[in-house]
Design a protein that fits this description.
alpha+beta, 45% helix, 5 helices, 4 strands, four-stranded antiparallel sheet
Length: 143
């Protein structure tokens, strides 16, 4: 069962993640922690209108959270709030047995579907998706 949870692609993504790549002078930074497992993420963003134009993070999470953060980092530039809200909903749905799976550039997230059986891991996986939405909403109130 653990082989399904920690498959080769998840381990590869997590091990390749630069866990501390912050940006200078972000429009906003959001810090989020999973109370269940203690994983945390800090996200920095710069926006041009409603589009993410720069992204950085500091990740302190389990392998699954690191894999999710790696996929976020690889694909977030050029995305807007509506796209990221949809993504947040899709990942949450996927983890809870729904069939609205991430697609397009986000389809790598489907490797995390095996974690649906492990509710205790959902908080760590959701950190980058929840934090990016919080950061965007904070930036909207500032800009």
């Amino acid at each position: 069962m653990l082989d399904d949870l920690y498959n080769k692609k998840i381990l590869q993504l997590a091990s390749g993640l630069n866990k501390n790549i912050r940006i200078s002078n972000p429009d906003c930074s959001a810090i989020l922690r999973s109370p269940v497992c203690g994983s945390s993420i800090t996200i920095d963003i710069k926006m041009n209108d409603d589009v993410i134009c720069a992204y950085g993070h500091k990740v302190r999470a389990c392998t699954l959270g690191q894999a999710a953060a790696a996929i976020m980092m690889a694909n977030v530039i050029g995305k807007n709030k509506l796209q990221l809200l949809k993504l947040q909903s899709q990942v949450n749905s996927m983890l809870n047995g729904g069939d609205d799976l991430p697609d397009g550039c986000w389809s790598d997230l489907n490797i995390l579907q095996s974690a649906s059986k492990f509710k205790i891991r959902h908080g760590s996986i959701m950190l980058p998706f929840n934090a990016i939405v919080i950061a965007i909403e904070m930036a909207e109130n500032i800009l």
